[in-house]
Amino acid sequence: MPIINKDLDPAFQTAGANPGLEVWCIENQQLVPVSESNHRKFYTGSAYIVLNAVFPKSGPPHYDIHYWLGNDTKKVDSSLASDKALELDAALGSCSVQYREIQGQESQKFLSYFKPCLIPVEGVFTSKQGNLNGEYQVSLYTCKGDYVVHVKEVPFMRSSLNHEDVFILDTALKIFLFSGCNSTIQERAKGLEVVQYIKDNKHGGKCEVATIEDGKFVGDSDVGEFWSLFGGYAPIPRDPPSSQETVAQTVKLFWINLQGKLCPTGSNAFSKEMLETDKCYMLDCDNEIFVWMGRQTLLTERRTAIKATEDFVRNEGRSDKTHTTFLSEGLESTIFRSHFTNWPKTVEPKLYEEGREKVAAIFKHQGYDVKELPDEEDDEPSIDFSGTIKVWRVDGDELTVLSVTEHARLYSGDCYIIQYTFPGKGRDETLFYAWLGCKCVTEDKTAAISHINTMADSSRNNPVMAQIHEGNEPAQFFSILQRLIVFKGGNSSGYKKFIEEKGIVDESHNENLVALFRVQGTSPDNMQAIQVDQVSSSLNSSYCYILRTEAAMYTWIGTLSSARDHNLLDRMVELLNPTQQPVSVREGNEPDIFWEVLGGKSEYPKEKEIQGFTDDPHLFVLKITRGKTCLIDGSVYHANLLEFQLRRLQELSSSNETANLTEKDKNVDYDSLSIHPYERLRVVSPNPVTGIDLTKREAYLSNEEFHEKFGMPKSAFYKLPRWKQNKLKMSLDLF
Question: Which CDD domains match (predicted)?
Fold first, then answer.
């Protein structure tokens, strides 16, 4: 609803009445509304107020207020902007989160409003803009970030270039995209979006575009033209490795009194009870500052707190680009809450540690020497993840190369070949993956294997090949693609023909149809959205989901999901639809429309699901000495794979040992052994049997209990291959 307040700045009288963005700029110490057509044009000499209003289907509106300060903004305008932001917050009921945005240091939330980028303009805003004529100004920009991109103008000179970032050179007739050899695939893709934005908005869509690869400058006229603008080609120097040591961060909490004095209340260890509802506090995290304002504080007290914080930044010699966030009580961010010990938060259980200890205990108990390898985090990654990717979709004998934007969008009904090339020791290394969708047809699967073999044979650098199936991808595969969306259905002619012959409804992804995605992963550089059946039974309390309809988008947060999952959820929403604002739904508080879209509410898994296997690829060293197997354990790996490989190796080694077995070893009469109950024979039994052969626990079971547990008599069990015996024993906790 419109704000009715006679004392309120007239520019704010209708603020927050509708969802979406509203922008104001300070001109001659007055707030002036900025038209929607100029929302992206921020002048470096001006200060702006930006309001983003979100109206969920149920519950009150959500407001985020940002005040943006250009590098050349006058101090008086900066102070007025912070006052006006606080005034707007008070008018909206003191229920917004406020952000201080500095040119070049904007938050991801702020930049997400202006996709694909925000490029500040030199000068000062005026509501009476005139037409500027003159020579086209050549500009060089650097693009950083693969989620939301930070675009910054840098001096037009060779020394501005480096191997880490993506650069855009904007000239009157042509736009050049220069990709540093160490830049990521996502940064290059974002750079192309920025190029398109510049072409459409500064050139009216009429100019040439050229892409320049770092280090490649032979036989390309565009490359020659690019370097001629810098006075000719010269190598870009590599930055020396940083010698700076990481300094432990000290976090301090201050109470801000009515006179604006900062009163220290402690450092590093804080509790929620330290924050009183009638006071304002400043949490100093060095490179980021939070100002917390209690519900019962007055507007004048909040203004004093903001001024005191800005004076602190200036007087302490901090960078004026220090990011500051202003939080009202009850609207605290996850990062802010994480600094307080008793604030409710989700703790990630390291489930693999329990498994690692259990495996170690088992082998030690059996008399084997167990040695633990160092944690993986202390070692360098096995491959370089800054390489280049090419992806082809398989359609029988035909291969279709995918564009960069399609690399991370695979279909369950299709097969793909992924080529990953990265710098190795002295030469480039290449990996080939054949990714087989769970719904792909046999002819595409066969063709994919044939194609990948042909590609590998024609490669000169002895590539590594891997065949992987949807749902069983190794972590390395996810780390290479970084962000992956797996859609239902397929595009190959073989898949289309198959479903037509079988009379199966084509469920291939369609932007206009309802779709449900499960979000998973370990980090922003390793996350996936998997399309599942759009029914409520597909939900699971351990995950977060995205439900997209033609009219709205919902994000569903399971009660057992973690803070990491929530972060991945926000980022994945941007990939699926960057223009649509989602409605956040927490498990247990779903609106009726949510269940209606899923065809009604039904039962779904609500127990904690272990999601550890694909998170941690680990190496096991198997040492076999005279009949004794020693597993040097890094940590627990996928059980089936470990069991098969470990038991298979035992079989291979046993072929050389069979001749050394005595007749007594070959003809042990296990039926003559003493009988003990199953519960006392288990590895983790609280009252274990002693004085038995721990490698043959199952032999001490009675015939009846053996058949009950294994589903077969002992005679049939001992005819099985050794690896299969041990697999069954392990499943029953007898190995």
Answer: gelsolin_S1_like, gelsolin_S2_like, gelsolin_S4_like, gelsolin_S5_like
Q: Which residues on adjacent β-strands are paired with residue 423? A: 428
Question: Is residue 134 in a domain?
Answer: no
Amino acid of residue 713: P
Rounded to whole angstroms, how far apart are CA atoms 616 and 431?
Answer: 20
Which among 344, 342, 346 is positioned nearest to 271, based on CA atoms? 342
pLDDT of residue 529: 93
Residue 678's nearest CA partner among 720, 710, 717 is: 710
E strand or H helix at 352, and its extent? helix 351-365
Say how far apart CA 492 and CA 476 lie, in whole Å.
26
Residues ≥6 apart with Cβ < 8 Å to 191? 143, 149, 166, 168, 177, 179
Count of structural domains within the chain: 5
The mean-pLDDT minimum among 165-179, 370-384, 467-481 falls in: 370-384
| DSSP one-letter code for 614 | T
Instruction: Please report, to the nearest 10 degrees, the dihedral formed by the alpha carbons of residues 336, 341, 346, 347 taken in order.
Output: 120
Residue count of the chain, please give it: 735
Beta-bridge partner residues of 622: 631
Q: Residue 665 maps to which CATH number?
A: 1.10.950.10
Buried b (16+ CB within 10 A) or exposed e, 54-77: eebeeeebbbbbbbbbbeebbeeb
- Give per-residue pLDDT as tens, 587-631: 988 888 999 999 999 999 988 765 544 444 445 545 444 444 444
Question: Same domain for 520 and 587?
Answer: yes
Report the candidate in 398, 277, 273 with the shortest Cα–Cα distance to residue 330: 277
- Residues 408 and 537 both lie in one domain: yes
Q: Is residue 357 included in any domain, yes or no?
A: no
Q: Is residue 175 part of a domain?
A: yes
User: What's the CA gap between 597 and 36, in Å, rounded?
Assistant: 34
Together in a domain, 593 and 625: no
**Cα–Cα distance measured from residue 168 to residue 156, given in angstroms and rounded to the nearest whole number:** 11
Task: Work out whether the CA dihedral 337, 343, 344, 346 comes out positive or negative.
Answer: positive
CA distances, 163 to each of 180, 229, 237, 321, 563 (Å): 4, 19, 8, 25, 34
Q: How far is CA 160 from CA 140, 155, 611, in A?
A: 9, 6, 44
Q: CATH code at 514?
A: 3.40.20.10
Q: Is residue 20 part of a domain?
A: yes
288-293 and 388-395 strand pairing: unpaired
What are φ and ψ of residue 338, in 5° steps?
Answer: -65, -15
Give 51's DSSP letter. E
3-state secondary structure of 666: helix
The overall average pLDDT reported for the chain is: 79
Residue scoring higher pLDDT (571 or 45): 45
Q: pTM of the prediction?
A: 0.43
**Residues 176 and 281 reside in one and the same domain:** no
Statement to judge: residues 529 and 459 lie in one domain: yes
**CA distance readout (Å), 326 to 21, 102, 676:** 19, 14, 67
Cα gap 372→76, rounded to integer Å: 62
HEC string of 138-195 equals CEEEEEECCCCCEEEEECCCHHHCCCCCEEEEECCCEEEEEECCCCCHHHHHHHHHHH
Contact status, residue 567 vs residue 522, Cβ threshold 8 Å: no
Q: Which domain holds residue 195?
A: 139-212+222-228
- And the tokens for 484? 């992956």
